Structure formats: C-alpha cells, structure tokens
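Input:
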Amino acid sequence: MASDDEPEVVEGLRRGDPAAFDRVYERYRPRLFAFLLRLSRQRTVAEDLLDETWLRLVAHARSLRPDTRLAAWLFTVARNLYWTHRRDSLVEEEAAAELLTLWPARDSWPSPYDVVATGELGRRVERALATLSPQHREVLLLVAYEGLTPTEAAAVCQIKPDAMRQRLARARAALVEALEGPDRQVALKRSYGT
Amino acid sequence: MTPNEMPDDAVLSSLRGLPACDVSRARAERLRTRCHKELAAQEPSRHSSARDSEARWHRGVFVVAGAWCVLYLWATIYDAVGVYVF
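Output:
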C-alpha cells in the first residue's frame, strides 16, 4: 500500500517539513479514523485515539527510518493505542446503540462511498462487522478494507504471518456467520409462518 | 497461496464497499494546526546550536591551557630535580 512518493514524504517528515506532514495527514487521516471507529465503535474514542496517533507521528517524525512504511507505522500505533485504551478502560460495549455513529458526521466530507453507505448491503456488512470480536474486526479491516498484505497486517498486529492467515480465515468465517444470521432468522420465521 | 496473497472472495470484497469515515472538517483542521506547532517546536533551535559551538570553543581553550600547565609543571619538576640531584 506504500505510494511511490513515500520515501520522499518520509524524508520530509524527518526534516520536520509541514508540507510533508500535510500529505501524510490527508492520505491517512480518513483511513485511520475509519479503522479506529470500526474497531472502537465509539466516535469520541476514535477521535481521541486519532489525535494521539498523529501526535505520536509528529513526536517521532525526526527519528523515522528512511525506509519506514507509513501505513504500517500508523496502523500499528493506532492499533496499539486502541488496545491500551481498551485495557485501561475495560470497555467493550454492545454495538447496537453505537452503530449509528459509524455513519459520517454531517459536516464531514462526502465521498463516493457514501452512496454505498445508504445501501442495504453496506449496512448489513457494517452491522455484521460490529458484532465480531475486536481481534476479528481488526484483521478484516486491515486486510480486506485497508488492503494491507497479510504480512503487513501481521506486523501491525505483532503476530506471525501464518497466525495472521489463520486469524483472517476465522474472522472471515465469523463474518459469514454474522451476515447469514438475520437471513436465517427470517427464513425460520417464514417457514413457521410467523 | 503465498503469505501475501489475498483470498479474493465476495465476503472480503464486501468490506471494501464500506463507507469512508472522517472527523469533522473543524476537528481535522484543529489537529493539523496542533501537529504543525508540535513539528515546529521540535525543530533544532539555532540558539542551541550556537550554544553548542560556544561550548566547543571553551572546551578547546581549557584543553590548551591544561596542556600548557602540565608542560610547565613537568618542566619545573625537571629543573628542580636537576638542581638537587646534580
């Protein structure tokens, strides 16, 4: 997922160039926020963790290695911040009430994906994803949504690539089950004529 | 399948159609401004580099003066020894 100009951008960050920061910020802010929002399922938590992620980047900008992969670096920091937050607050709330916050805020920028958001399939997938465990959510978001390779995602999650592939397979199966759940219930109701 | 090959199926593909999310424009701008300030605050200050070069100069003076003192002391002792021994 690294872009062609990434070495140049990293070099700019190492120099403390605000323009280089802006390029990274525009490129990764929505992606990081979507990741944190779907992982935490709480907008306020996701916003706070997003702030902290960017402040960490700024704090470490001058000590970045020239070959730093920014996507992996940023998602690793964001993920670690989420798990630290989760451990500290022991928060694992039920998703239903918070699902509404997954949709973009009124004053956020519109995107082509907003069209999909209004679709039933998008809502079903979003709901199904929200019912999964955080471990399953994070691998699905990193690999299927963000497009990280399983090896990159394994590095972000600090597990071995083989373990990542197994976790991805389990997460996929859990998502399928979650997606099929409501349909099965509807079919059962129909078959019993209720 | 190699470790980096993605299993490409409808289930995982369905996730790619999820809507993008972002913080509000005002919040994004506030965070950008804050990060710019932090970046600027970390810039190596010209004052500190001037202080460093001044410290290096002082250190050089002390080293030269110290070496001269050691030589002088050595010469004094050598002369004294010459007076009493010979």
